[in-house]
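Hey, I was hoping to borrow your eyes for a little while. No rush at all, and the record is pasted right below:
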Amino acid sequence: YVGQNPINFVDPLGLKADLNFFGIQEPQYWRAMKYNEQKDWFSVAGHGNAIGGIYDKGLYSSYFFKKNVTMVSVPVEKLAQYIKAHPRYKQGMGVDLLGCEIGVILHKEEQHKQYAQKLSNILNATVRAPNKFIWYHADGKTSINSSYMLNGKELLNEKDPGKLNVFYPNK
């Protein structure tokens, strides 16, 4: 699929996340390849959190960073460059940052560190990001929920749904 070269080839049918930072060895990578984004939204999939933003688990790191075996936070400025350079992205298009807890609203004293807000400001575009864990399902659908542990395994907590928080560019 895309010739295993996500830098030079894209999916013309729109049947996957536009940028996929999961490691190719992870089930989430293949599930994100089935994600069906909304027409006017650009999608970025990967591990994440509210301050570090999207984390690269190896797919892009071999191209852009020193070879690593662990996750590396993708600087927000670099992610904005990747998005702007992507052939599907159009100026002002909304961006879905589909990584766990990237959309958690930080306390006032830490809001200047908010990755999703920084990306929104750089791109001058609306950014949506989940406030809890995002779960990629085998059919390409996603859900936003917290998790719980059972017998050493992390499971989706259907009783605690989350949402996509929306970040608008600061004027």
